[in-house]
Please model this.
Amino acid sequence: MDRRSTLKWILTASAAMPLLVRRALSEGAAAAQKTAQPPHGYGTDPDLIKIYHPGDVWPLTLTAQQRRTAAALCDVIIPADSVSPSASSVGVVDFLDEWVSAPYPRQQEDRPLILEGLRWTDAEAGRRFSKDFADLGESQQHAICDDICSEKAAAAQFAQAAKFFARYRDLTAGGFYTSPVGRKDLGYIGNVPLAKFDGPPADLLRKLGLI
Amino acid sequence: MSFLTSSTIEKSYDVIVVGSGAAGGQTAYTLTMEGATVLMLEAGRKYVPELETPMFQTPDQAPLRGGDTPDKRFGFYDATVDGGWQVPGEPYVLTTEDPAGRFDWWRSRMLGGRTNHWGRISLRNGPYDFKPHSRDGLGFDWPISHEDIAPYYDKVEMLIGVYGSSEGLENTPDSPPGCLLPPPPPLLSERLIQQRARRIGVPIIPAHRAVLTEKLDFKRSPALLHPGNLKAQKIIAADMQRRAACFWATPCGRGCAIRANYQSTTVHLPPALATGKLHILTDAMVREVKLDKNGLAQGVVFIDKTAGTSHSVAARVVVLAASACETVRILLNSKSAQFPQGLANSSGKVGRYLMDTVGSSLSGQIPLLESLPPMNEDGASGDAVYAPWWLYKEQQAGKMEFARGYHIELGGGKQMPGVGTMRGAEWLTGGSYGKKFKEDARRYYGSFVGFAGRGEMIPNENSYCEIDSSVKDKWGIPVLRFHWQWSQHETRQAAHMQKTFAGIIDAMGGRLKDGPITDGSKAISPGGFIIHEVGGAIMGANQASSVTNQWCQTWDVKNLFLTDGAVFASNADKNPTLTIMALAWRSADRILDLMRRKEL
Model:
């Protein structure tokens, strides 16, 4: 669609957004589906020079409990390792809160999916281990996530939870890899002015059989 | 002070130019550099790229990590103000919700218009592209040939700065020495595409983009651009020296504060303003062109959007360069006793033969590009290479199921991670999370390539726009209603694109998540999505079948010119902007000539 050079679809593995779910994951989801109605987005002529933080344009809406579960879950998806810290330590929960609190249609569609998914995650942790998800040990958290981490492989009773997890992982990754440490983790070293652009190094061209 | 208000503009000018993008910018540049006084009217706000361009801002500094929203369709940092396929308060009407029959109209309400964010791909139309009907019996011939416009392509390339090369390929014109800047080195992924695409017969050559890979030749070019005009030469030489070369960072789509790519606001308008001959009025929405008692254009009526008031201004010549559809809208809204169907519409052709570009895209994942070491692949922020159409002979021999060609834009590499990074990656990762997911992200980042076909649409009777009888915009101006239909030439071409892209990806050892789409009607982007809309007031050889002559001068009103894409009689696969500028320069030369001869 965009002839405009940056070709953003190149950066993503998917051709389209996953089909979003309006239906509740389980009974009793009505409360979770209550959508915030912030007054407006940033409009069609926002200041592009200013540096924004989540909450600057529309209010954040997640409760402390939701944020706690959100943090635990995004750190299961992107934990600290030898290369970089965890997702929650670089502001990904704020980003997720900004996302589900945003007034735009795509985000408003994600909101019930995410809020109900967080609720389901805690409920499932309680059912299996009598604790909140955030209070589980790593192997307990993995026991739940292993059941929902693949939309393709998930058992029928976890299908909706797997849809939630797929979307949540997408958002967690989007938040993490757009942060400075996420960029560094991937080895992105651009966005700096260069006097000269030489193209790929010769050893790589040789390795790929291009020279 | 060259930016005026509706109360400080002069009563009359040599020329009024409506619009400030590629067409308006080029028209005003040529006219003012050669001494004419010009009032430029722009419907959007004043825009200053040097101050407003988010050059090094990163996604984490933007709302929603810079991702697209209905407010900013191409992402937060895209250089579009008050624009998109929907503009608040400025509706248009569709006759169907069916994607096959819809046309969506992208506008941008800012000085410089869409040139601030465009892809900068600057391809010349070839000889066949001006005589398509003669070649295959479809569509219309232009009243000019490639030879007529080639000198203007030379000038535009020298003025704005275009990188590329001359390869001597069929219907893919070479530029004379001294016109093009050197192309940038291809990225690793582009090199791999080049190698593998050639194996299946698809040529990959340096792309042409309006980006300064070097500083412009301010010593040689000015005399060629403005022969015998020392003042103009001096102005443009000074301005060329003020434009920096690309520093290989920051996306062109945000615009460029160092003026290293072409946008009207950084290339056409500064020297035109330096002449002292150009007045610019922004937030001025033109409603109609007014005629005098002799049937000549006397000026325009516009709405001052800041005050909501209506004003008139007069000129010897009126140029509409408002973008194809907006120009058509102004003509159709300019009704008079002489032109009850709209101005310059004695042929009934105003609004007819609206065209966009055929678009279809496919991306793949390439194992050979996985887990590569860090390297800076920002490059020139766009294609270093592309594939020009390569099957002319097969088409001529009747071996293809569609009549016209397409070129392939492509890309890949370690671009700045965006909010979509690793989105929907389960098909690769099997659903990993945790440390494995982080390892997968390192492995797959930068291993994707994408292909976008850009093909020729043949004008047809069912793709057109007209004025809606009831809907008006917030200024009270009647709006356009669009009708759209692709022919099988376009849908079959889109299916061919998909097959070609899948073939290249396969030749790279790559894999597809989805596709290729074999049904062309599903593979083709909806009308207006490629934002190459042209036509609607086509030029031709006679008054009965066209709206303007070869000089973009309307047949019906001799001091009314249309210098934007509205006059295109065909829409070659080549992106239209360079041709718009070349035609506008040629038309402005004609206006100057006629004014000197007192014929206008």
Summary: Chain A touches chain B through 87 residues (CB under 8 Å). Residues 18 and 111 of chain A are 14 Å apart (CA to CA). The helical segments of chain A are 30-33, 64-77, 92-101, 105-129, 138-148, 159-177, 180-186, 202-207.
